[in-house]
Amino acid sequence: MILTGPEITAAEVDGRLRITPFDAAQVNPNSYNVRLGPTLLTYKAPVLDAHRSNPTHRIEIGADGYVLKPGQLYLGHTVEQVGSDTFVPLLFGRSSVGRLGLFVEITAPIGDIGFHGQWTLMLSPIRPLRVYAGMKIGQIMFFVAVGPITPYSGKYQAASGPRPSAYWRDVAPLEAVAP
């Protein structure tokens, strides 16, 4: 089951989910609009390594916006801190942003129950696109969980700003991997 807009508002008021800052004008019939934060990250290396930390370049989106270029992955973040210890959040791009040729969160839309923080957004433009801090970039839906809940306590908890991949923290050392 998915929460309706009025139930999202009720759950935010009674604490079953947290959205900070919360704005009733961002509530949709069955989702909540989230806005793009002012910071982007890009990876510096031409080849990324899943077994190592990859250095990033920080970009601050100015008042005139910032032009995203095709072929580049940008890590952005939501203005809002969103989380729930009760519901499963899923984040998707808004259709109006998709119609501009921007893929938002294609491979990892599901959030964990118990995560609370700003969401890192994976942004991939099809063509050059100027984006602005504070623009509505995505929408989060909340689903009812069935069964016992083990809250998330992982490496991205309480994220603030965009976070690069920490996949390398989860992998076995290269020597330990069998061919």
CATH architecture: Distorted Sandwich
Note the gap between the termini. 43 Å
Shape: globular
Task: Briefly note the structural class of the backbone.
Answer: mainly beta
CATH topology: Deoxyuridine 5'-Triphosphate Nucleotidohydrolase, Chain A
Number of strands: 11
**In which order are the strands of the major sheet placed?**
1-6-9-8
What is the CATH superfamily label?
Answer: Deoxyuridine triphosphatase (dUTPase)
N to C succession of SSEs = HEEEEEEEHEEEE
Oligomeric form: single chain
Question: Spans with pLDDT under 50 lasting ≥5 residues?
Answer: none
Number of helices, counting only DSSP H or I runs of 4 residues or more: 2
Radius of gyration: 17 Å
> In this structure, how is the largest beta sheet organized?
4 strands, antiparallel
Helix content: under 10%
Instruction: Please state the average pLDDT score.
Output: 94
CATH top level assignment: Mainly Beta
Number of domains: 1
Proportion in β-strands:
35-45%
EC number: 3.5.4.13
Protein name: dCTP deaminase
GO molecular function: dCTP deaminase activity
Keywords: Hydrolase, Nucleotide metabolism
Overview of the structural elements:
The chain is mainly beta. It has one domain: Deoxyuridine 5'-Triphosphate Nucleotidohydrolase, Chain A. Helices cover 8% and strands 36% of the residues. The chain has 2 helices and 11 strands; from the N terminus they run αβββββββαββββ. It is globular and about 45 Å long. The mean pLDDT is 94.
